[in-house]
C-alpha cells in the first residue's frame, strides 16, 4: 500500500477530528474550531444539509485526491457511524472517470483498493448501481460497500425518470419489517411510476418504493464527491439529500463559494513530498510556433544529457500541444516539422488524440521505449501519468488554449518518482506562444489558480523565466564564472521586467525624478502599461507603487477593486524577484544544523519521540487502572456516551448501526478485549502487556464502575478513544519525568559526527502554507516563499513576528535564514520536549558559520510551563554546542526594555 504523504495525513486527520467533534457539538462550531487550529479566519460554514457534516478537502492537481478519498471511507465510517463496515456512495463527474475509479477500486493490485483492504481486509465490496441488487441484506453491517456512480445518476427533478429511483422487487429483502419511523422518510410509489414501470399497479401506489435511492436512505451512506466544484445547484443538493447521507466529503482542486473547505493543501507541500516538479521554467515565444517547438526540443535535449548523470534511468519527454484542425500547426504539420526540420526520428514521436492512440499499450518507463515527443491537441486521457514528462510546448495561443493547464499538470506530476540529484530535473519546463514573459506568466497563473488548485501567491513564485538556451544541443545556459578563492559561482539570474496594467494613464507631474527615470509608460486601449526594469531596487519599486496607488481614484467599490488589482500585480512581481534571488533557487546550501543527542547503550542517538518514550522506563501495569470522565447513560429513547465532556447521543432507532442483536448474544468479554487490542495498539507497548492492561480495565469497568458488557460493546469506539487518551496520559507522565532527568545529558554532536546527527534544509522541500505577501522585500530568506508571516495587523501596525523576521533579515551577521514551519518534522528543524517537538520560529545561518535559532513570544508575555521548557531546551542546545549554536527567546520588550532588534544584536555580540 502507498504510504500517505505528510500533507495527506494532515488533511485526513483534520477531517477525522472535525467529524468526531461534529457529534458532540454543532457542525458550525466544529468547523470553526478546525479553522482556528489552522490559523484561518473570516470563513463561514454553509449548512447545505442541516446538521449533516459537509466539508471539502482542497488538493491541487497531482496531489492524490483519489487515494485520500479511499482512506476517508474507513475513517469517516468510524468517526460518524461507529461502523467497521460502512456504506459509501462515491460520485464522479463523468462516466469515463466512473469507469476508471470503479476499475481501480476493484483491482486488488491498485493502491486505491489496497487502501480499502488496509482497513477492511477482505470485507469489502465495490460495485456500480446496476450490480447493487446483488448485495445481500446479510452483507450490510459486515462488509464495507463502496458504490461508484456518476453525479448525473441522481441529479434529477423528476425521480420517475432515473433507474436509481425505480422500483426493483429484487431489493425487497432489504425492506422487510421496516418500523413506521424508518419508512416515513422513504419515497413511495406514485402515479408517475406506473407509467414508466408497467408491472406496477394502482394497488402499489403509496407503498414504500424498493429503490436503490431508498435503500441508500436507510443506510445513511458516507458520500464522496469527486470534482465537487462542478455541482453547486439546488437540484444537486436536493438529489443528494434523498440518499440521506451521514456525511458529505468533497474533493476538488478548485473550490467555489459553497464548498466548505476544511483543509487547504498548498502546492509547496506537494513539491516537498516529491509529488510535483517545481518551479516551472517558462519561456515565451513571440515569433511563433516554430521557434516555440525549436526551443522545446533544445530544452528536452539538454535535460536528456543531464539525465545521464542520474543513477536511475530517465528519458525526458516533451508534450506538444498542436493547434486544432483549422489551425496552422496541426498534429500532422507538427509531426512533419519535428521529423524534417528538427531531425527527430519517427519512432521517437507518438500522437495521442481522440482518433490516434499511439500510446495505448506502450510502457514509457521501459528503457527500450524510444518515445521522446507526444503530440496532442486537447487533453490526454484521465489518469495518464508519466514522471518522464518534463517539457510542455503549447503551440496554441496562450489566451485561447483551454487545455494548457491540463497538459501542464501532466508535466508537473511525479507519480512513483523522487527528487533527482541534478536540480534541473526537479523542475518543469513550459514553452508558450506569447508576446512576452509577463503575458505568458499572467495567463498561465490564472489557469493554474482557476483550474489546477494553486493559490495565487504560490503561482507568483513558482513560475520563473527561462534563461538563455544554446543554439545547439548540450548542457547549455550561460557559462559559470570563477569566484573568489577559485570556487565556481552561478551567474546572477536575470529578473524579468515588471509590467503593471493600469486602468488609465497616470499623472506623473508630481513624481520624483528618480522614479521617472526608471519607469516607462505605454498607453493601451485598456488604459496603460507601466514598465520597470527587473533590476530596479526594492525601494524604488515600493515608491513607484505608492505614487501610482495614490494617484488612482478610491471613491467607489470598483475604484478600490482596481487599486487592489494593481497592488496584486506589484506583489506578484515581488514574489518573482524573491523566488529568483532565493539561495535555494540558486543551488546554494544551508549549513547543517546540529540536533540534540543522547548516548544510550554506548551509541549516540538523536532525541526523537521513540527515544523520549524509552526514557520514561514505564509499564502500563504499574499504574492504577482508571478511566475518569467516561460514562454511559441510557434512557427510554436515547443512548448517551460521555468522554471528558464530549457527549455522543444516539436514538434507539439506530439499532442497526449499533448492532444490538449481535451485542446481546454473541460478543464475550474476551472478544471485546481482542477488538480493543487492535484498536488501541501502541508501537512502544508489547501485546502481552497491552492485553493484560485491557483485562484489568474491562474488569474494573464492569465490576467496579457497574457498566454492563453490552453497554461497553455498544460504546466500544468511544471506549477505544478514551483508552488511547488514558494511555497517552500515563505515557506523558513517565516521559516528562524521564526527560527532565536526562536533559542535562543531552548535547549536540561534535564536528566529526555532525553529518549524521544534523538537520538539513533542502531546496524545494519547504511545505509553506498561508504565505507572506507583504510589500517589504526580504533579501536573505533561503526559500522563495515565507511560511505564515503577516506584515500588518488590522490596525496597520507591523505584526510582532514580522518585526522579528525583518530584524533577522537586515542584521549584517546573518547570511541567510528560514521561517521554520511547525509540525513538519521531515522538513523543519526541531528540538525535543517532554511532550513533543519544539519548532523555533526562525533559524538563521550566520556569516561566521554559526547557527541561530529564535523563538518569538510577543507581549503580554507570561512564563508558563511550555515557554519555560522551550527556554530550558534551547539553552541546553546552545550550551552544549561549544559556541556553534545560539538560542534566543525573543519578546517584544525584555526586562531591560530592549526591543527585538536590540535583543538580536546583543545575542550576536
UniProtKB/TrEMBL annotation:
A GO molecular function held by the record: ATP binding
Domain of life: Bacteria
InterPro entries: Helicase/UvrB_N, Helicase_Restrict-Modif_Enz, P-loop_NTPase
One term under GO cellular component: cytosol
Keywords noted in UniProt: ATP-binding, Helicase, Hydrolase, Nucleotide-binding
One Pfam family, short name: ResIII
Residue intervals of the Helicase/UvrB N-terminal domain: 3-255
The name this protein goes by in its record: DEAD/DEAH box helicase family protein
Biological classification of the source: Bacteria, Pseudomonadati, Pseudomonadota, Betaproteobacteria, Burkholderiales
Amino acid at each position: 500500500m502507498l504510504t500517505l504523504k505528510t500533507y495527506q495525513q494532515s488533511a485526513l486527520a483534520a477531517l477525522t477530528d472535525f467529524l468526531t467533534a461534529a457529534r458532540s457539538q454543532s457542525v458550525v462550531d466544529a468547523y470553526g474550531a478546525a479553522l482556528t487550529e489552522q490559523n484561518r479566519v473570516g470563513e463561514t460554514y454553509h449548512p447545505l444539509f442541516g446538521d449533516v457534516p459537509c466539508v471539502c478537502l482542497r488538493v491541487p492537481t497531482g496531489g492524490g485526491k483519489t487515494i485520500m478519498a479511499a482512506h476517508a471511507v474507513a475513517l469517516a465510517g468510524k468517526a460518524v457511524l461507529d461502523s467497521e463496515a460502512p456504506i459509501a456512495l462515491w460520485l464522479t463527474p463523468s462516466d469515463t472517470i466512473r469507469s476508471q475509479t470503479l476499475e481501480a477500486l476493484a483491482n486488488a493490485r491498485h493502491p486505491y483498493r489496497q487502501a480499502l483492504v488496509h482497513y477492511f481486509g477482505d470485507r469489502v465490496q465495490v460495485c456500480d448501481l446496476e450490480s447493487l441488487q446483488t448485495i445481500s441484506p446479510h452483507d450490510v453491517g459486515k462488509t464495507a460497500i463502496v458504490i461508484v456512480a456518476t453525479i448525473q445518476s441522481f441529479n434529477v427533478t423528476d425521480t420517475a425518470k432515473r433507474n436509481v429511483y425505480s422500483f426493483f422487487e429484487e431489493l425487497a429483502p432489504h425492506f422487510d419489517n421496516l418500523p413506521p419511523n424508518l419508512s416515513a422518510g422513504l419515497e413511495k410509489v406514485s402515479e408517475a411510476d406506473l407509467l414508466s414501470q408497467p408491472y406496477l399497479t394502482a394497488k402499489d401506489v403509496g407503498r414504500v418504493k424498493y429503490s436503490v435511492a431508498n435503500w441508500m436512505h436507510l443506510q445513511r451512506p458516507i458520500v464522496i464527491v469527486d470534482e465537487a466544484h462542478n455541482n453547486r445547484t439546488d437540484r444537486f443538493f436536493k438529489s443528494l439529500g434523498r440518499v440521506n447521507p451521514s456525511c458529505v466529503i468533497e474533493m476538488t482542486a478548485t473550490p467555489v463559494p459553497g464548498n466548505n473547505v476544511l483543509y487547504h493543501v498548498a502546492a509547496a507541500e506537494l513539491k516537498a513530498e516529491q509529488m510535483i516538479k517545481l518551479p516551472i521554467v517558462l519561456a515565451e515565444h513571440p515569433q511563433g510556433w516554430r521557434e516555440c517547438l525549436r526551443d522545446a526540443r533544445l530544452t528536452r535535449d539538454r535535460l536528456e544529457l543531464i539525465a545521464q548523470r542520474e543513477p536511475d534511468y530517465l528519458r525526458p519527454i516533451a508534450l506538444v500541444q498542436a493547434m486544432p484542425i483549422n489551425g496552422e500547426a496541426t498534429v500532422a504539420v507538427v509531426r512533419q516539422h519535428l521529423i524534417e526540420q528538427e531531425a527527430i526520428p519517427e519512432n521517437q514521436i507518438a500522437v495521442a488524440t481522440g482518433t490516434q492512440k499511439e500510446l495505448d499499450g506502450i510502457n514509457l518507463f521501459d528503457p527500450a521505449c524510444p518515445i521522446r515527443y507526444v503530440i496532442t491537441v486537447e487533453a490526454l486521457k484521465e489518469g495518464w501519468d508519466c514522471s518522464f514528462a518534463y517539457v510542455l510546448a503549447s503551440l496554441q495561443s496562450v489566451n485561447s488554449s483551454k487545455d494548457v493547464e491540463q497538459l501542464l499538470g501532466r508535466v508537473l506530476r511525479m507519480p512513483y518518482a523522487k527528487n533527482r540529484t541534478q536540480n534541473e530535473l526537479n523542475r518543469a519546463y513550459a514553452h508558450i506562444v506569447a508576446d512576452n514573459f509577463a503575458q505568458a506568466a499572467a495567463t498561465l497563473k490564472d489557469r493554474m489558480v482557476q483550474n489546477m488548485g494553486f493559490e495565487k501567491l504560490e503561482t507568483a513564485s513558482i513560475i520563473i523565466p527561462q534563461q538563455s538556451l544554446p543554439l545547439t544541443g548540450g548542457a547549455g545556459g550561460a557559462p559559470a564564472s570563477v569566484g573568489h578563492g577559485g570556487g565556481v559561482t552561478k551567474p546572477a539570474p536575470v529578473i524579468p521586467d515588471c509590467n503593471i496594467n493600469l486602468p488609465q494613464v497616470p499623472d506623473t507631474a508630481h513624481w520624483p525624478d528618480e522614479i521617472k527615470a526608471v519607469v516607462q509608460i505605454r498607453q493601451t486601449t485598456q488604459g496603460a502599461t507601466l514598465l520597470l526594469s527587473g533590476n530596479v531596487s526594492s525601494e524604488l519599486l515600493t515608491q513607484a507603487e505608492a505614487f501610482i496607488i495614490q494617484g488612482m481614484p478610491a471613491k467607489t467599490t470598483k475604484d478600490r477593486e482596481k487599486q487592489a488589482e494593481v497592488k496584486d500585480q506589484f506583489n506578484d512581481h515581488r514574489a518573482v524577484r524573491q523566488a529568483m534571488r532565493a539561495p535555494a533557487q540558486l543551488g546554494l546550501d544551508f549549513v547543517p544544523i546540529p540536533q540534540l543527542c543522547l548516548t544510550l547503550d554506548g551509541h549516540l542517538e538523536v532525541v526523537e519521540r521513540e527515544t523520549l518514550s524509552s526514557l520514561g522506563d514505564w509499564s502500563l501495569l504499574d499504574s492504577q487502572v482508571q478511566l475518569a470522565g467516561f460514562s454511559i447513560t441510557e434512557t427510554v429513547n436515547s443512548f448517551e456516551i460521555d468522554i471528558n465532556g464530549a457527549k455522543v447521543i444516539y436514538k434507539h432507532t439506530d439499532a442497526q448501526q449499533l448492532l444490538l442483536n449481535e451485542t446481546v448474544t454473541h460478543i464475550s468479554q474476551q472478544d471485546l478485549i481482542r477488538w480493543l487490542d487492535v484498536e488501541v495498539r501502541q508501537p512502544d507497548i508489547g501485546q502481552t502487556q497491552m492485553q493484560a492492561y485491557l483485562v484489568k480495565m474491562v474488569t474494573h469497568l464492569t465490576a467496579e464502575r457497574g457498566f454492563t458488557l453490552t453497554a461497553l460493546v455498544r460504546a466500544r469506539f468511544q471506549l477505544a478513544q478514551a483508552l488511547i487518551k488514558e494511555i497517552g496520559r500515563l505515557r506523558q507522565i513517565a516521559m516528562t519525568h524521564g526527560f527532565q532527568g536526562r536533559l542535562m545529558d543531552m548535547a549536540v554532536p561534535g564536528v566529526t559526527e555532525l553529518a549524521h546527527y544534523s538537520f538539513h534544509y533542502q531546496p524545494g522541500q519547504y511545505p509553506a502554507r498561508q504565505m507572506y505577501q507583504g510589500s517589504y522585500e526580504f533579501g536573505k530568506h533561503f526559500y522563495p516563499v515565507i511560511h505564515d508571516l503577516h506584515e500588518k495587523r488590522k490596525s496597520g501596525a507591523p505584526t510582532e513576528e514580522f518585526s522579528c523576521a525583518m530584524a533577522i533579515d537586515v542584521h549584517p551577521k546573518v547570511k541567510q535564514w528560514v521561517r521554520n514551519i511547525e509540525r513538519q518534522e521531515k522538513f523543519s528543524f526541531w528540538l525535543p520536549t517532554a511532550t513533543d517537538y519544539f519548532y523555533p520560529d526562525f533559524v538563521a545561518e550566520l556569516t561566521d558559520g554559526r547557527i541561530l535559532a529564535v523563538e518569538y513570544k510577543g507581549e503580554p508575555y507570561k512564563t508558563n510551563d511550555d515557554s519555560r521548557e522551550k527556554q530550558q531546551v534551547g539553552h541546553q542546545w546552545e550550551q552544549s554546542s561549544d559556541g556553534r549554536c545560539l538560542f534566543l527567546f525573543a519578546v517584544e520588550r525584555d526586562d531591560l526594555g530592549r526591543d527585538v532588534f536590540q535583543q538580536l544584536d546583543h545575542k550576536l555580540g
